[in-house]
Each structure stands twice: as C-alpha cells, then as structure tokens.
Amino acid sequence: MTVMSYLGAIGAAQKEAMLADDRVVIIGEDVEANVYGTTGGAGKSRASEGDFLQQFGRNRIRNTPISEEVIVGAAVGAAMTGLRPIVDLSYSSFLYMAMDQFVNQAAKNRYMFGGQASVPVVFRSAMFYGLSTGAHHSDRPYPMFMNVPGLKIVTPAYPSDAKGLLRTAVDSDDPVLIFEACVLWGSKEEVDENEYKIPFGVGRSVRTGTDATVIAVSGAVPEAVAAADTLAKEGISVEVFDPRTLVPLDVEGILTAAAKTGRVVVADPAHRTCGAAAEISALVSEHVFDSLRAPVRRITTPDIQIPFSPALEKQLYPNRIAIADAVRASLGVIAPDAAGANGAAGNGGRGGSVATPGADREELATGSAR
C-alpha cells in the first residue's frame, strides 16, 4: 500500500492501463505537458522515469485542439476502430460543447450499428465547483448524462476508488464518463500500488450506523462523514453510503442502507431538480417505503446559476452542517448550538438546500426554488 493523492491515483491507473494494453491512448488539451498532473512520471516533473510523453511517445499521448466536439468525436471514432482512448476534457462544464457527440454518437452507436460496433472510450472531467470559477466553469452535470441511455457514469470520492474504477472504465466496451470533484484532488489515503479493479454498480459503505442513513455522491461523501462524526458526539449513529457509480446504480445497496435505519438523507452537489438525489429518493420511496420512519430529505445545490462571489457560492453546496441538520430533522431533534435559540438557527452558512416537506411546498408555490 502507498499513500496516494486522488490525482496521483488517477495517474497510476492511467499508467497501469497503458502498460497493460497498447491500444490505450490518452488525448486531451495539454496532456503532453501534464498540466493537471495525471500524465507525469513523478508528480508534475520530468524526473528520471520521465513523464507519459517520454515513456509512451506522441502516438499514445496526444494534445488536441481546444474543440470539445472534435475531441469527443475523434475519440468515439478511434474507439470504434480499435483503440481504447482515455480523454481528458478538463472542466466538466466543457462537456456541453460536445453534447451532440455524447448523446447521438457515443451513447447510441452500439445500438445504431446493431451491436456490431462498441465504443470503449473513457471521458474524464473535473467539477471545479467551490473555487470561484464562475457560472461557466462550476457545473456538476452528471445528472444530465444519467438521463442518456448508453453512458456509464462514475463519481469516485476517494483515491482508492478513483484508481480502481478508472481501471474498470478502461476495460469497458461502452463509453464511460468519470466526474472528479476537484475539491477531492488533494485528498490522500493508502492505495494498493498493485493492479486492482472495482466493479461498476457496487457501492461503498463508508461508515456504519443505526439511527439514520446518509447516501452521498462525489464531493458530498467526505462532508457526510464529517457530519456523522459530529452527530456521533451527540449520540446519533449515522450510516454513510457512497454509490460510487450512478450508472449502473447500486440499487440493492442503497435500499439496504436506507431500510437499515428508516431515516434517509441524500446529499448531492448537483442541482436539485431531476438530480441524482431525486432518483435515489424516488427509488427509496418506491421500494422500501414501509421501512421509512421519516420523509426522505435531500441536501442539494439550489436550482440557480453559480455566482463568482466566494461568500455567495460557499452557501450553495451540501456541507457537513446542512447534512447534520437534515439528519437531526429526520430524528426530530435540534442542534445543541441551536437549542438556546429555540431551534431558529437560520440558514446562513449552513449551505445546501435543507428539504422539509413544508419548505418544499412553500418554495414551489412561490417559485423561489428556481
């Protein structure tokens, strides 16, 4: 085992895949220069082992023009003719420029060719939310792609998952989109330096608990764990479950974790309407309704564009305070620091969107949810 950062684990997985299969190539903007630190030899330096360009040559590490539609289209074509490309698309917000290629080519080609063609390509992109990158660079668009049949959606929250899931993605004969929360890039943990793969559709029980269950996605997972740590000091035991892949989704794992406690909070950094949290909440309500002891609550980003202002942006995303508040609400208790204020703690700095049935109805009636 070796302590790796999230980015380091991605770089290790890419190197493993390239050494294992000559058909694996990496293309994208500035991948030759290792700008984002995932195509280097030792960190970002061209150290003794050399970076990927020196190790594998320009036939397998190739810069592209700044044209996402061209990049995605070329990768789909390359995949259909025998290569297994890994595409670095940098910002997830840039995926919008290539929607035709994603939706009408990558996702549909296996079906349109009657199964005679496969599209084994991996698209990596980073969600730069929370860093004052403005409305054009702060998107978390994975729910849009969950709605497109034919695409697999991966959202790793830990370095070990990033490495194992990327290795599985490269082996997939279907297009895989990996969404990396850049707020996690610097996180570290012990990772197996040997080759391993994590199957899609198998979630991770990050923490066990008995009083409530938090099902968290991507960057919300560490916040859910932090909330669980806080609540443990209050005598509240919280289960935290990370689906890890949204397509395919570990439905059985989610339902088991939900039914275990009967009180469910879903934390999702994406926008609220038709998001991953909405789908997970619907599944829980459909299949284990009889086990629920309180309404399912969602902590999401409100349906608004992301402001540049750090002070404004910080309040929008699910955080440990909002998640803990939602768990307490499910249990019918209030935070110790709010007890003296008769429970009126306010929402300033609590982040996310604390969903109570009454608040939902009021927002929908006034349109303030938009």
Automatic annotation (TrEMBL):
<feature type="compositionally biased region" description="Gly residues">
    <location>
        <begin position="343"/>
        <end position="352"/>
    </location>
</feature>
<feature type="region of interest" description="Disordered">
    <location>
        <begin position="342"/>
        <end position="370"/>
    </location>
</feature>
<dbReference type="Pfam" id="PF02779">
    <property type="entry name" value="Transket_pyr"/>
</dbReference>
<protein>
    <submittedName>
        <fullName>Alpha-ketoacid dehydrogenase subunit beta</fullName>
    </submittedName>
</protein>
<keyword id="KW-0786">Thiamine pyrophosphate</keyword>
<dbReference type="InterPro" id="IPR009014">
    <property type="entry name" value="Transketo_C/PFOR_II"/>
</dbReference>
<dbReference type="InterPro" id="IPR029061">
    <property type="entry name" value="THDP-binding"/>
</dbReference>
<dbReference type="GO" id="GO:0000287">
    <property type="term" value="F:magnesium ion binding"/>
</dbReference>
<keyword id="KW-0560">Oxidoreductase</keyword>
<dbReference type="Pfam" id="PF02780">
    <property type="entry name" value="Transketolase_C"/>
</dbReference>
<dbReference type="GO" id="GO:0016491">
    <property type="term" value="F:oxidoreductase activity"/>
</dbReference>
<dbReference type="InterPro" id="IPR005475">
    <property type="entry name" value="Transketolase-like_Pyr-bd"/>
</dbReference>
<dbReference type="InterPro" id="IPR033248">
    <property type="entry name" value="Transketolase_C"/>
</dbReference>
<feature type="domain" description="Transketolase-like pyrimidine-binding">
    <location>
        <begin position="4"/>
        <end position="187"/>
    </location>
</feature>
